[in-house]
Amino acid sequence: MGIKVAVGAELAYQSTRRFADHLSWNISSSRSKRTAYRGQAAQTLREEFAVYGLSSFVYGLVGVCKVGLALALLVSLWLPGIGHLVAYALGALMVVAFVMHLKVKDTAIKSAPSLAVLAMCVGIVLL
Questions:
Q1: pLDDT score, position 32
Q2: pTM for this predicted structure
Q3: Tens digits of per-residue pLDDT, 23-48?
Q4: Integer Cα distance of 97 and 82 in angstroms
């Protein structure tokens, strides 16, 4: 019985990881484009996560969280009661992104997108 559970858990993990990678790739082609905002000298978002010392699992998890939270913000237009909670969650994610930039001693411009999204989340919470 224990072997079946372990095999099932591994299959679930692999499926979730493939789904997250596929979703991440399809949501935004900009993940592989060069920008001035990537951490250190990273060329892609996946490389940026490696610069921060984060695993590919965390890369996929963050991608799913960002998409889920963005969709939840859209849903909050019809269900306003969830807007604050979603803004807090997305804001927390942006604080972590900012801290990651500080961790690798990036220039201020590289932190601008996370700080801009954080400011918007604060605006949602305050309004």
A1: 59
A2: 0.70
A3: 555 555 555 566 677 777 778 888 88
A4: 23
| C-alpha torsion 117→123→125→126, nearest 10 | 160
Integer-rounded Cα Rg, in Å, for the chain is 17
Task: Tell me the angle at which helices 56-75 and 83-103 cross, rounded to the nearest 10 degrees.
Answer: 150
Instruction: Kindly give, in sequence order, each residue whose CB lies less than 8 Å from that of residue 43, ignoring residues fewer than 6 positions away.
Output: 34
Report helix, strand and coil shares of the chain as percent, to nearest 5. Answer: 80, 0, 20
d(CA 59, CA 76): 26
Task: Name residue 25's amino acid.
Answer: W
Which segments of 28-126 does DSSP mark as H helices, in order?
A: 45-51, 56-75, 83-103, 108-126
Residues in the chain: 127
Q: 96 with 88: CB under 8 angstroms?
A: no
Six-digit token pair at 125?
Answer: 């919470």
